[in-house]
Amino acid sequence: MRKIVLLLLVISGFVTSCSSDLDDKGGVTSTIVIDGVSFKPTKGIYFYQTASFESQKKVRFVISDEKNNEKFYIDISFPSSQKDLNGIYDFGPGTADELLVSSEFVTSKTRYSILGYTLKVTDLGNSKFGFEFTNPVTAFDIVKNAEVSFKGGFNGKFEFTEVKEKINAGVFTIQNNLN
Questions:
Q1: Using one digit for the tens of pLDDT, what is the confidence trace for 30-87?
Q2: How far is it, in rounded angstroms, from Cα 145 to Cα 148?
Q3: Rounded Cα distance, 26 and 53, in Å
Q4: How many CB atoms lie within 10 A of CB 57?
Q5: What are phi and psi for residue 10, nearest 5 degrees?
Q6: Contact assessment for residue 87 and residue 96, using Cβ atoms and an 8 Å cutoff
Q7: What phi, psi does 157 have (nearest 5°)?
Q8: Residues sharing a CB contact under 8 Å with residue 62, sequence separation 6 or more, in sequence order
Q9: pTM > 0.85: yes or no
């Protein structure tokens, strides 16, 4: 009888721990619509980059739809004294002590430069972030040489990736090492 009770406790503990592990890996959700087309990502990563100034930090977010080879990039820079990524980031230009952002969406057919006033970043902890583009925001289609409609944002859990920069025979490469 004790063995049965012990077995049931072990199984219930395993089932409970597995469900919370899955809940924590939720992924990235998107409400982004560019030029009438929805972007549905399958993966989100982020990593720190070398900043232009010592008084500054830089983080790049890469949200991708690996099936369709589409990537949405969000680059933010902020004062190195800031402890988290929370804030309202300006599309610039600006200085090293300001919260700044640049963003683009790249597909196999075109590249969109995201233009607007601000991006609100919410650092929810545990590698979870929210991104809200504040209106008016538009996208500029580099191939069509035209402004197109843009709306939406991102929310979810991102994988932290360590990036090591190398220079090989004059060619800049990036090597990713997942923790």
A1: 999 999 999 999 999 999 998 888 899 999 999 999 999 999 999 999 999 999 999 9
A2: 10
A3: 35
A4: 19
A5: -65, -45
A6: no
A7: -100, 130
A8: 44, 45, 46, 71, 72, 73
A9: no
